[in-house]
Amino acid sequence: MKIHYNMSLAEKTTFGIGEVVPYFIEIINREDLIQAINFIKENQLFYFILGEGSNTIGIDKKLPLAILHPNNHQVIYKIEDKEFHFRLPTSVQYKEFYQITIDEDLLDVVNFYCEKNKRIQIIADAGINWDYFVFFNILHGIGHFTAMSGIPGKVGSTPIQNVGAYGEEIKNFVREVETLLLENRTTTQKIFSNSECQFRYRDSILKKHLNRFYIEKVIFDVSLEKDITIKYPELEKTFYKEKDLFRLNDFEESSIKSETIKQYFQLRKCVYSIRRKKGMILDGVYSKSAGSFFTNPILTEEEFLQVQKRINHIPYFKENEHYKIPAAWLIEYAGIQKGEKNFHNNVGISPLHALALINYGARFNDLKEFIKYIQEKVYKKTNIILNPEPIFMEDFIYKI
Ligand SMILES: Cc1cc2nc3c(=O)[nH]c(=O)nc-3n(C[C@H](O)[C@H](O)[C@H](O)COP(=O)(O)OP(=O)(O)OC[C@H]3O[C@@H](n4cnc5c(N)ncnc54)[C@H](O)[C@@H]3O)c2cc1C
């Protein structure tokens, strides 16, 4: 295991709040994890598992805390009797996407089995960068994750809140999540099947037991298909209207081995373009963010009808018996404007999207006050409670 001493949580989380922690431990394999756990026990430390910190608000108190940082990086593709092994980056700068090499054998096999609609299993280590994983799959003709392009973070964090965007969610592709239970001075392996994960909108059993289970690998299972599917109307509309405007760069042009791959590249560009306009890509001015800061409230039919009596034009998406209300709409309806900041000017609503908060130099308490301000205004106007999406580290640090 590799220990980095005195690392700033503000630098290790995208929202940029947090104190210096004494120990930041990179975990590459099971042995590293066991050693780290012993180290934590011996030194009576608190611990917290942290990926790329894009959904975590750091703690800004000095504590005897060890961060466990998954950095394993193998991915295995299994189809029929064939297996392909690769090592993928654990975090990337955007330009590094184009230093990738296509594996012609995997590509041929995917193409071959596409015709027969076979399934492929992808066993991905938790430490791999998610967006690189999406890109690597597209390059090899596996486009299922394309709608979830541009989401920051690691593969291992995706099952926690059932990551999703533009009509797709991780739950649609996860077969199993391999974890270790960190409890009672032992580490026991526990494999969660898809149904055991109890995936819901931005939720799973793993989120309910945050930091109890260390995710080592995520196993995806997808059917190989030639046709691209887009499940989200806004994305579909933009894609078919503006497809030809999404120019591929030289690298992408040279690596297109089929019409399907070309379409997925274009779809990825389209997703990036939509996300960028909303400030949902971490390469812009408003990148001290945790993405969407509040989840869209889910109401029962009875609750929804009550609200609708008062606000008859309230927008919603009906999902089974439930009604999902866009949190961004609620915020603006409550009279909070895009770009609005707190009294100290150190935290505010993104000028690009009402659902994203931007840190301009806030302390944790400034953020907490601003969250309360938003929640109270929304509640007063709508009787609906907004819940934050990111994880507040201070609520989930434990000792072993
Ligand atoms: C600009 C921006 C856009 C975003 N867009 C989206 C979006 O479209 N859809 C969406 O769903 N999310 C989105 N997010 C949120 C975030 O990117 C995802 O939730 C992502 O999966 C978090 O990954 P991470 O590695 O950064 O997790 P972290 O923030 O490091 O961790 C998140 C939680 O997972 C736990 N965790 C991490 N790794 C492990 C592990 N190996 N084992 C056990 N627990 C672990 C941590 O303890 C923590 O509680 C966005 C965030 C940003 C900043």
What do you see in this structure?
With 400 residues, the protein is an alpha+beta fold. The chain has three domains: 2-70, Uridine Diphospho-n-acetylenolpyruvylglucosamine Reductase, domain 2, CATH 3.30.43.10; 74-277, Uridine Diphospho-n-acetylenolpyruvylglucosamine Reductase, domain 3 (2-Layer Sandwich); 289-394, Uridine Diphospho-n-acetylenolpyruvylglucosamine Reductase, domain 1 (Alpha-Beta Complex), CATH 3.90.78. Helices cover 28% and strands 26% of the residues. The chain contains eleven helices and 21 strands. The protein has a six-stranded antiparallel beta sheet with strand order 7-6-8-13-11-12. Strand 9 (164-165) and strand 10 form a beta hairpin. Helix 6 (233-242) crosses helix 8 (259-277). The protein binds flavin-adenine dinucleotide.
- Spatial ordering of strands, largest sheet: 7-6-8-13-11-12
What ligands can be seen in this structure?
flavin-adenine dinucleotide
- Identify the overall geometry: globular
Amino- and carboxy-terminal Cα gap: 18 Å
Number of strands: 21
Largest sheet: 6 strands, antiparallel
Instruction: Work out the helicity level.
Output: 25-40%
Radius of gyration: 21 Å
Based on secondary structure, the structural category is alpha+beta
The CATH first-level class of the largest domain comes to Alpha Beta
> What is the CATH architecture assignment of the largest domain?
2-Layer Sandwich
- What is the count of DSSP helices, taking H or I runs of 4+ residues? 11
What fraction of residues sit in β-strands?
25-35%
The figure for the number of domains is 3
How confident is the prediction overall: mean pLDDT?
93
